[in-house]
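Attaching the record inline, Q. Sequence:
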Amino acid sequence: LEFVFRYDLLNQKSTLTGTNERRSTIGLNYWVGPVSVVKIAYEFDHQTGPNAAATSGVLVQFATGF
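Structure, as predicted:
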């Protein structure tokens, strides 16, 4: 198991959308094998501006390499 955290910021005040977005994500990665992982996370999305629409939610992903 592997705990993960991500924070990102998108500044678009001077563009046509006119919004700023700030996201933070917490999650857990479960390594099925050396090259396969199942990822589960929750993303907190905060937007400011005239077209702001916060969309927080659960993210689920499976990834494998070869």
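The chain has a mean pLDDT of 90. The first strand starts at residue 2 and ends at 11.

More tomorrow.
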